[in-house]
Amino acid sequence: MLLARVLSSEARERLSRIALVKPEKARSVEDLLIRSAQMGQITEKVSEERLIALLEQINEQTQKAPKVTIQRRRSVLDDDD
């Protein structure tokens, strides 16, 4: 209900499409928007462009660097010396 007042119709549509693919990300964005609205930080409806900027900001913060682990096979003939 609160999200309907805070988001423009285009932003709501985008957030619902994101929720289909990544529900946990959509939920975190919804929680962030609700908290911001309750604290009075959002004074006007959030446009789709502003939602995209918010999503990009969240992606930068949560993006993990890929970790590569190389496991080499040891030959039976190799010495441990």
How would you describe this structure to a colleague?
With 81 residues, this protein is mainly α. The protein is built from 4 helices and no strands. Helix 2 (9-21) packs antiparallel against helix 3. The model has no long low-confidence stretch (mean pLDDT 86).
Question: Can you describe this structure in just a few lines?
Answer:
GO terms for molecular function: DNA binding. By secondary structure, this protein is an all-alpha fold.
Could you list some keywords that capture this structure?
81 residues, single chain, PDCD5-like, 4 helices, 60% helix, mainly alpha
* H/E element order: HHHH
Number of helices: 4
Rg (CA only) = 22 Å
Overall average residue pLDDT? 86
Low-confidence stretches: none
SSE diagram, text form:
Blueprint: H1 2-6, H2 9-21, H3 23-38, H4 48-62
